[in-house]
Write a structure and sequence with these properties.
disordered C terminus; 7 helices; two-stranded antiparallel sheet; globular; 6 strands; alpha+beta; single chain
């Protein structure tokens, strides 16, 4: 797995086949990347009570972790974290629970990325990752028309002749920041501010000959909050 021209992760053909049946959700963990790694917080992440792909209740079981890197806000240091995964017994997918501070398929954390888009170029973390962040901005500029079309009136009606910076600000104002915006976009629309990824799309196994129940989009109920959605169940208890 390498990086593409926009600073996102590029998956080789062989890796795509291995990862193709993975689904990703974003969960609120309440701590920063360095604390997450230090406390091995992935061990506390519990299985969603409902599979976000097929809607089956109590069908997810532990399926280990995968490692990925993310930057820490302010200092800009790289931190390796473990992302919790679960396997659905009802449909052939794994569900990974990405911590809310990480942007899907992006190395730089949400707080630093948002600071860059806001022009806070003097911040230490922004300075450290400025070149990569500039690639993120180009990725957003190429994707924003598709993103706006996908959102429709999700964040209110678009003003005439809206440009990429204006649409970005409208999303940030509506959600309160990039972290919450990403959570809402992934959960409700299956998209991020920088692209559309297979891991956020529902799998349809209707042609397999096995009957599947399917939850309505945006109705999966995790045992920890899905960031930016307000969806959570009692604490009976992600790539």
């Amino acid at each position: 797995m390498g990086q593409d021209r926009d600073g996102g992760w590029r998956i080789a053909p062989g890796e795509f086949l291995r990862l193709a049946e993975g689904v990703q959700i974003i969960v609120e963990v309440g701590i920063d990347p360095m604390s997450y790694a230090r406390e091995q917080y992935q061990r506390r992440v519990r299985a969603p009570t409902v599979c976000p792909n097929c809607g089956a209740a109590q069908a997810l079981e532990a399926h280990g972790y995968y490692l990925r890197w993310v930057t820490a806000a302010l200092c800009g240091l790289l931190v390796q974290i473990a992302v919790r995964r679960f396997l659905c017994r009802h449909c052939p997918v794994t569900v990974s629970c990405l911590p809310h501070f990480a942007q899907p398929y992006r190395l730089v954390c949400n707080e630093t990325t948002e600071a860059f888009f806001e022009g806070q170029t003097q911040r230490r973390d922004v300075e450290r990752w400025q070149e990569l962040l500039a690639r993120y901005r180009r990725a957003y500029a190429r994707f924003w028309r598709e993103l706006r079309a996908t959102c429709g009136a999700f964040f209110g009606r678009s003003p005439p002749r809206e440009q990429p910076p204006g649409f970005w600000r409208r999303i940030m104002d509506a959600c309160g920041g990039l972290t919450a915006a990403t959570g809402r976009l992934v959960h409700a629309l299956g998209v991020t501010p920088f692209g559309r990824y297979r891991c956020h799309q529902r799998r349809d196994f209707s042609g397999s000959g096995r009957k599947r129940s399917r939850a309505a989009p945006g109705r999966s109920t995790p045992t920890q909050p899905v960031y930016g959605t307000g969806v959570a169940t009692p604490q009976c208890s992600r790539a």
